[in-house]
Amino acid sequence: MKKLLKKQEQQFTRFVPEMVKQELDKLEYKRKDDLYCIIDLIYRKQINYKTQLQKIYGYVQLPQSVFKKLIVDKNSITAGLNFLIDNNIIDVNPHYYVGVFSKSYKIAPELLSKKVEITIQDKNINKRIGLLEKERKKFFEKKLEFSQTNYFNTFKIDADGAYNFIFNQAVTEIKTLCFNKRILLSEADIKDIIDCKRKWKSNRGRILLYSKELHNILHRFTTNHFKILCIKNGYLYFKRNDTNGRLDTNLTNLPTVLRQFLMSDEKLYNVDIKSSQPYFLYTLLKVEKAIPEDELERYGKLVIGGTFYEYLADEYQKYSGKIKTRTDMKSMLFKIFFSKVESFAKIKEFFGGLFPNIMNYINETNAIHNATLANKLSTIESTTIISVIIPALGKLCIKPFTIHDSFVCRESEVNTIIDTFNEITTSMYGISPSLHVKTLLEDSLDSSEVEEDDDDVLAIWDDEFLNEINSYSA
Fold first, then answer.
1. Is residue 4 helix, strand or coil?
2. What residues of the chain score a pLDDT lower than 50?
3. Could you tell me the pTM of the whole model?
């Protein structure tokens, strides 16, 4: 009976910016838990993504159906949103199209601050959160039940260490911004800007006179703090993406620099595929037999040998006279692979000069919708990693966490994972790609956060990402 009563009275928490909490404490509102849930949802949606757009302080689209999962009454949702807007706690973008784009919201810029945890008192909201938690933990692919169970039981983070890291990171970014704009502020003043202490309002105002980048820095800080708190408090998700088959978890959307704070009884390593998207394109081209053998094999040797991006950089210098880094060439290749046919004409002309038939194949594949090749490659990747390799490792009692094309594992598991990976990919595709093996600390140090690598850019292949890269000029 006691267990049943405890289960019925379970309370959940939501996360809101500290300054928002202070403002709401001054205001009278009958259903404050509605307000906390609305504020929480504005950031909760953003933790599912890790594209460049998420690093920019902007509006988040939220349809009424999202709010209704917690606040069933439509009038209560409207009243809560209007209250928050009228009291300058959230801003609303009035430009939306019914049935196409939902209204979008963001936290008022002057209230951007670290998160605090609020215990929800409303019994009905707690009940709905509980039901959503149960539904979220359901998984319908039997072969991955062992992996999901392990994830929910063991995925932990050093929350204090991670928070100190993002705080110091924000301090460094604001210092750099002040230096570039010739604004004289002490380190204590800058810390106060983040902590909302002493002269923080006037000092934020001084910086904002010269640059709105401060909002982006504070937005990244608060978003990452939200991600940390979700892991700390066990608000974990583990789901298979319906579009591309990838496994989406709190880990896949955690910035690379924060992976070093994951906790385990052994040192953790990341084993990932070198040039993974070029490799999976190679496997696709081999299966479809759409490219002349000599061009395909030339492409394949560069990819498998791990020198593909360096080759492209050398050839691009000959083509344009411009020096590009390996990272530059990765970014360029994503545009070639995943943009609309008419986008980035100059760099596609360059790539087509090296691999004319492959370029034609990419254009033909993306002719109707530029997500087509992206979804094909991610489907091959997810089939290989999630559907085949992870279950094979499970039979060996190895349960790594995955970050799309890589495995986070204990030191004692590294060699078995490499051997299993090579054996399976060779069996499936006739050849295995090169692999990177790094500790999570080394991986974090090598990451150039404000951070971009293969996994970060391609953490989700959806219209948002594809629209983003198509908004750039070649």
1. helix
2. 1-2, 4-5, 448-474
3. 0.86
